[in-house]
Each structure stands twice: as C-alpha cells, then as structure tokens.
Specification:
Layout (H helix, E strand, L loop, with lengths): L2 H6 L6 H12 L1 H11 L6 H16 L2 H19 L28
Helix pairs in contact: 2-4, 4-5
C-alpha cells in the first residue's frame, strides 16, 4: 500500500463516536435494558478497545491499531447482517391501495 494512502486513511467513525458508544454501553439504563432483554450485562470492552485503537491511530499512525479497528468494524457489520428481517418487504403495493379505508371493518393487525 502507498504510504500517502495509509496516512490519509480515516477511521470509519470519529474517535469521539467510539467513546460515546462506550459511555452509552456503560450507562445504568443500558445495563438495565440489556439485562432485561438478554439476561446478562452488556460487554463494553470492544467499544473501549475501538476507541483506544482509534486514538492510537490518530496520535501515532500505528498500523496494528488501524488493522484492529478495521477488523472490529468488519465484525460489527457482519454481525448486523446475520439477522433476518421481521417483516416481508413488499415488491408491489396492494391492489386496492387507492380505495378508501372501510372504517367499520376491523383492520388486520
């Protein structure tokens, strides 16, 4: 890789965003919500590592920090793609979309 291209590389997010995510993750509200939803406390370590790697890249242009940050973002995107949509997306509108709604007829829920 060209050295000038490496120097001009920017993290996918600003370092402050990683810090904000870490603070949110550590918040009492998030701990309560995560415990209620999943039965465990959230692990916030990755956000802190990402923040530290981002700062390390900005200060010292450390290539190991850059690669760790890229790997983390790739893992985060791959994790998000694992979930299937809850609703089936329509390809076309319903045939009777232009007709007025019948207020007396109960709507499908």
């Amino acid at each position: 890789m060209d050295r000038s291209a490496e120097i001009s590389w920017r993290p996918p997010r600003a370092c402050d965003n990683y810090w904000s995510e870490f603070r949110h993750c550590k918040s009492l509200w998030n701990h309560f919500h995560h415990y209620y939803t999943y039965g465990t406390s959230p692990s916030c370590q990755q956000w802190q590592e990402d923040y530290n790697n981002c700062r390390e890249w900005e200060k010292h242009r450390d290539t190991e920090a850059k690669e760790a940050l890229q790997r983390s973002e790739r893992n985060r995107v791959a994790e998000q793609k694992k979930f299937t949509p809850v609703w089936k997306l329509r390809q076309d509108p319903p045939r009777d979309w232009h007709l007025p709604l019948n207020q007396e007829k109960p709507q499908d829920s």
